[in-house]
Amino acid sequence: MKQATIQITFEEEKLRALRRYIAKRDSTLETELQKAAQRLYEKGVPAAVQEYISDCAQMRPHRFNKRGALAAPRQNDDIKPQKKSEAQV
What we know:
By secondary structure, the chain is mainly α. It has four helices and no strands. The chain has helices spanning 12-24, 29-44, 47-58, 84-87. The chain is elongated and about 65 Å long.
């Protein structure tokens, strides 16, 4: 699944202290924030929506054209090309 970046503001002194004490637990601020965001997602997003998003993520990614619009599926997209020797048989 494509990742997004979250940016927040936080007091520098508190941030410095937070990073220092998280490091003592052999972790990083980024790791702890990712865990917290996942917990918020699981708590705040209905289970049916989470399941839908999970199902969509497992499907083949969409193709986009040069303008960024969703491109139409190509014909024979799921057919594997044959080798030249196989095609002549």
